[in-house]
Every structure is written in C-alpha cells, then in structure tokens.
Amino acid sequence: MLKASEEQRAQWVRHFTTVGFKAIYTMLANSKETGRFCHGDTPTIADAFLVPQVYNAERAGIDLAPFPTIRRIYEECNKNEAFQKAQPERQPDAT
C-alpha cells in the first residue's frame, strides 16, 4: 500500500493530470483535425476518453484555464445527450 497522506495523493493526481493535459492540449490546439470535438465535428472515442478525465480534473481542483481547447471540447461534449446521460451523478448507483 502506498504510504502517502491524502494530500500527497491529491498532489500526485493534480501533477500527473496536468502533465497529461499539457500534452493533449498541445496536440489538440495545433491539429488542423480538431473541430468541435477532439477529431472533427462528430464525437469520437477520443472525446469519450477526454470527458471523464476533465470531470475528474475538476473534482481534483485542477485549473483548466491553461487548456482552453480541452475546456471547449468538454463543454461541447456535455451538450450531447449521450454524454449527459453518462455523467456519473446521473447513474443509478450515484450517491
């Protein structure tokens, strides 16, 4: 078992999520293939993977201001009914 405090684990999550977002943001912001979504104007599996990462980043208190393309895509995804239905708080076992 990892012998780290809750705060140390939270810092670890924030650090590595931010590192990952920097790489994804660079790719999305510089790709001519990026549209309303990660790849074009229709949701793809890339968006299905991005949304929960952003959701968890928000829960961890990560500032998404440095990643406007990620934020924009996340917001666009959440306009879609399928993404809305998949939100954790809308699941039958949500507490």
Give a brief description.
With 95 residues, the chain is mainly α. 58% of the residues lie in helices and 0% in strands.
Question: Can you walk me through this structure?
Answer:
Helix content is 58%, strand content 0%. With 95 residues, it is mainly alpha-helical. The chain has a single domain, classed as Glutathione S-transferase Yfyf (Class Pi), Chain A, domain 2 (Up-down Bundle). α2 crosses α3. The model has no long low-confidence stretch (mean pLDDT 94).
Keywords:
4 helices, about 100 residues, Glutathione S-transferase Yfyf (Class Pi), Chain A, domain 2, mainly alpha, single chain
Strand and helix layout:
Layout lengths: L5 H25 L14 H15 L8 H10 L3 H5 L10
Helix pairs in contact: 2-3
Structurally, how many domains make up the residues? 1
What is the share of helical residues?
A: 55-70%
CATH class: Mainly Alpha
Structural class, by secondary structure, is mainly alpha
State the separation between the terminal residues, measured CA to CA.
27 Å
Count of extended strands = 0
- The count of helical stretches stands at 4
The CATH topology comes to Glutathione S-transferase Yfyf (Class Pi), Chain A, domain 2
Overall body shape: flat
* DSSP strand content: under 5%
Assigned CATH architecture? Up-down Bundle
Low-confidence stretches: none
H/E series, N to C?
HHHH
